[in-house]
Design goal:
The complex is a heterodimer of chains A (307) and B (313). In chain A, helix 3 packs parallel to helix 6. Helix content of chain A is 65%, strand content 0%. Chain A is flat and about 100 Å long. Chain A has 307 residues and is an all-alpha fold. Chain B has 14 helices and no strands. The longest helix of chain B has 36 residues. Chain B is globular. Classes of the chains: A mainly alpha (307), B mainly alpha (313). At the A-B interface, helix 4, helix 5, helix 8 and helix 10 of A face helix 2, helix 7, helix 8, helix 9 and helix 12 of B.
């Protein structure tokens, strides 16, 4: 690649033109493909890789040297970690390694399900609020009210009136997350509907549902993807908190929050019961948040400079 | 200005009314018949019906809601199903530890996080910045009870610097009070610090790119003055906003922190109430926390007009 060019206009009379720069710049070979992408976005690589690993762990839990996570063994209570019981056993003699591995399923299920459901619900409400003028203030007042109840308390009170089950936990956390998503979507929609291409579509006679589907919705997907990742991480934490305080999934389900709740009474003498689920939970949420940060930087390079 | 403050204050009324409606519905649709509980096992259906009529539980939803709202406005939150004590009295007994924990965490978090964010923005792109931002991601990802257990294990069990669990009222001395609250406040503060530091950094980066900052530097102002006098003041609005919004995190976190450190506060009261399905208590606590949250954000909205004179409503 040469900076000197043959198309330079001829110098006017009496004006000296600086000589062309020597060819010192090496050609930049843009990295393409998957490796190039991962190199440019290390947080996505690390977060996504960790998450993939955890998904594998959840899927392959029965084949990773685990035993039945609910198998009681009263004779082998609160054994410290050893070659036989990698993470030790709890006060009922259950194998903590197996329980933690199976717990990955609960956490990932709750995280992903809440992220998807809250996104769909928030998208629907936010689109309506952002596009239907008369509904806007009513919907947003309702969302403001829901948002003035701290999310964990909202989820806790919802769990208090229902039976503890994985489905109910997902529903309760979803309801607690929806107001924030709809607020985000509404903001995006309000700015999008002022765009010239939306005016153009209106002028061309496109019907409102079609405008929303074709011109508004696709543009909300980038911020929604980032938001969904963060919701996934926060839902995992809320699930663990709910289970930890006894308002989450039923005690017989091996979830990280439940394992920690069971180890709570003994944590001063047998800290390993609490430690392993805590470590798995932290790493999982970290992976999800790293992925979210990476996606944000990738999808919105303007904001990335600020971070 | 006064008009704005008045209007903004009045606008919290419908929000609180909606919160009230939600919280009331919670009790209304909650499983279990209070009349049957009060009547006991031996009661006949007629007895239960009579008690239900006495309690006014057979009236329409809106009538009951109106009456409940009226009582709530007079600071009557009903009586606990489990202890039979007035809910306001139970909350009153538990409020000091929670208030202490939250105020201490708030002060600690602001004192730590704002300078952190300022330094990260100032040193943007360096290893200091990256270190602070790594901490921020970690603070978001590690749940409050995990931090709590780790801190308690290291600083209370192993090093024996602080008591492991419990709470000492402030009336029994500032030292013991503080000693019991240091570790809970540290663990509760982490996520809050991460949040504020992140917003402070982003807001500061934006302000530091402004012309008046360059002018301030050009006229020979010291780095510290530029950062804290000129830049931080102009970056304050998003920071104060996130401090207000973050109170919700603090409230949710307090419930868990109190469980980890066995602090007899409102969070423990909530957890106990959930396990016993003591709905009036759950209602009361949720209502109180939401009220505090709305109030804090009202104050912050009004603060804006002082922080940024350009904001006029």
């Amino acid at each position: 690649m040469s900076l000197a060019s043959d198309h330079r206009p001829a110098a006017p009379e009496g004006l000296a033109i600086a000589p062309a720069l020597p060819d010192i710049l090496k050609a930049i070979k843009p990295r393409t493909g998957v490796t190039g992408f991962l190199r440019r976005h290390p947080t996505i690589a690390v977060g996504g890789g960790l998450l993939l690993l955890l998904i594998l762990v959840a899927g392959l839990a029965p084949y990773l040297g685990t035993v039945d996570p609910s198998a009681l063994s009263p004779a082998r209570r609160t054994r410290p970690p050893s070659a036989l019981y990698w993470f030790g056993t709890d006060m009922l003699g259950r194998d903590i390694y197996s329980r933690v591995l199976y717990g990955t399923r609960v956490s990932l299920l709750v995280g992903f399900a809440v992220a998807i459901l809250a996104s769909i619900g928030g998208l629907a409400i936010g689109l309506v609020a952002g596009y239907v003028r008369w509904a806007d203030s009513i919907i947003m007042r309702m969302m403001d009210s829901l948002m003035s109840i701290p999310p964990i308390l909202l989820a806790v009170s919802l769990m208090a009136i229902t039976r503890g089950s994985v489905g109910n936990v997902i529903l309760a956390i979803t309801i607690a997350e929806i107001p924030r998503v709809s607020r985000l979507v509404r903001g995006v929609v309000l700015s999008l509907r002022e765009q010239p291409y939306v005016d153009g579509a209106v002028a061309a006679g496109t019907r409102t549902p079609m405008i929303i589907l074709r011109h508004i919705l696709p543009n909300t997907l980038a911020p929604m993807t980032v938001q969904a990742t963060y919701i996934c991480g926060s839902a995992m934490i809320v699930e663990a908190i709910l289970s930890f305080i006894g308002a989450g999934v039923p005690p017989n389900v091996p979830s990280w929050g439940n394992i920690m709740a069971e180890g709570r009474a003994l944590w001063q003498v047998k800290p390993f019961i609490v430690f392993f689920p805590a470590a798995f939970l932290s790493v999982t949420v970290l992976a999800v948040n790293l992925l979210g940060d990476g996606l944000r930087d990738m999808l919105d390079p303007r904001q990335a400079k600020g971070h | 200005m006064l008009g704005y403050i008045l209007r903004r204050t009045l606008s919290t009324i419908p929000v609180m009314a909606m919160v009230g409606l939600f919280v009331f519905s919670l009790l209304y649709i909650a499983p279990g018949d209070p009349a049957a509980v009060i009547a006991g096992d031996q009661a006949s259906p007629e007895d239960i019906a009579r008690i239900r009529a006495n309690l006014g539980l057979d009236r329409p939803f809106l009538v009951q809601f109106g009456e409940w709202g009226w009582r709530t406005l007079h600071a009557d939150l009903g009586t606990s199903i489990f202890t039979g004590l007035p809910v306001t009295q139970m909350i009153g007994q538990r409020i000091e530890p929670t208030l202490s924990l939250m105020v201490l965490t708030l002060i600690f978090a602001i004192v730590v996080s704002v300078p952190m964010g300022v330094v990260a923005a100032w040193k943007a792109g360096t290893w200091i910045d990256r270190g602070i931002m790594t901490f921020a991601v970690l603070g978001f990802s590690v749940p409050v009870f995990v931090i709590g257990y780790v801190l308690a294990y290291v600083f209370a069990l192993q090093l024996d610097w602080f008591p492991v669990q419990g709470y000492t009222p402030i009336t029994q001395g500032l030292g013991p009070w503080l000693g019991n609250l240091v570790l809970p406040a540290l663990s509760l503060g982490c996520v809050y610090i991460a949040l504020i530091a992140r917003i402070t950094r982003a807001s500061m980066l934006e302000v530091l790119a402004q012309d008046y900052v360059r002018t301030a530097k050009a006229k020979g102002l010291g780095q510290k003055d530029v950062l804290f006098l000129h830049a931080l003041k102009n970056a304050a609005v998003p920071i104060v906003t996130v401090i207000g919004i973050g109170i919700a995190l603090l409230i949710g976190g307090a419930v868990v922190t109190e469980s980890v450190f066995a602090i007899p506060g409102l969070g423990r009261l909530t957890v106990d109430a959930i396990l016993r399905r003591d709905y009036p208590v759950i209602q009361g606590v949720v209502l109180l926390f939401s009220f505090v949250y709305v109030l804090v954000n009202l104050v912050i909205d009004i603060l804006y007009t002082f922080l940024d004179p350009r904001i006029r409503y």
